[in-house]
Fold this protein.
Amino acid sequence: MQEMNPAETTRAYAFEMWMKAPMPMVTLFKTVDVSNIRRISKRRELKFNMLMCWCVGKAASQIKEFYTLPVGDRLIRYDSIAVNTIVANCQGEISSCDIPFTDDIHEFNKDYLSLTKQVAETCRNHDITDRMVIGTSALARYDIDGAVGMYSGVFNNPFLIWSRYHRHWFKTYLTVSFQFHHTQMDGAHAARFLDSLQQEVKRLNI
């Protein structure tokens, strides 16, 4: 990771316009056809949430804007990314777990299982500070139409929220909300990411 001069990047105008904005976050919603990963989850006995997190990481890894993040008043360039998931811990509360992304889904699954287990048992967050982290939160027990994340002014990381999936005829659908800092990317980048997420979900074959 390294600090960048915003004026020398493609995000120069966005940095000037949005870094000091009182609410620089934007949220997009998309309904994703997750029939394929639901089948894989059941057939391979893999966690649905793990498969979603891997697809999120895979889609994001192909878009260069995901490797640059406003941190404080600086613009930081990262060499790699991680995907965060929220874990129910042994005290009945929640903890945060960052999982390093890799193209190898079997390796990602291994890390996902071991790290979420560690976090659940110790009630200690697992944070990765040298990767650009994409946040996720799965409210899988609940039916909601959408969610807009909170802007704390501290964390500018992109964040996805989804709830329970829905079946309609022979398809399974999941509504996803995606919040991002306007300095990091524009709406077109975010929309391209969501389209890529859908493609990764459909093409996954393990």
Notes: The CA atoms of residues 30 and 176 lie 5 Å apart. The first strand starts at residue 2 and ends at 4. The mean pLDDT is 95. The chain has five helices and ten strands.
